[in-house]
Amino acid sequence: MTDFNSNSETPPQEYHDTTPPNTGSTGPQPSVVDPNITSEDRLWAMLAYLLTPIVPVIILLIEEKRERPFLKAHTVQALIWGIVVWLASTLLSGFFFIGCVIGIAALVLSVMWALKANKGEYINIPVITDLVKSQGWN
What we know:
It contains six helices and no strands. It is an all-alpha fold. Helix 4 (69-91) runs antiparallel to helix 5.
């Protein structure tokens, strides 16, 4: 007969709960990445935000890229974002301080959105995303 008390040779197995604790937070849930998004799609979307408006125009000229749903969602947004930043920086270049602040803020936002796009996430730019969706470009 085998004795299973504290003198047993094998230590008892510990139970590890791997579920995250419920903190009661109703914050954003982790996004689910679409399995149809390729690493090439993520790279092109990232470059669209970093090198806007040039890369979005290139993507729109390549038919196979233009039809990819993930790239389609990001390309026009990045293009409009690039045009808005270019116009704002051109119009406000006479005011040195304001032009610098806009340029730095635009760069920071572009990098943040590029990193999110590279993770396979969709970006929601407040006015631009609504415009893109209302025009059916998305």
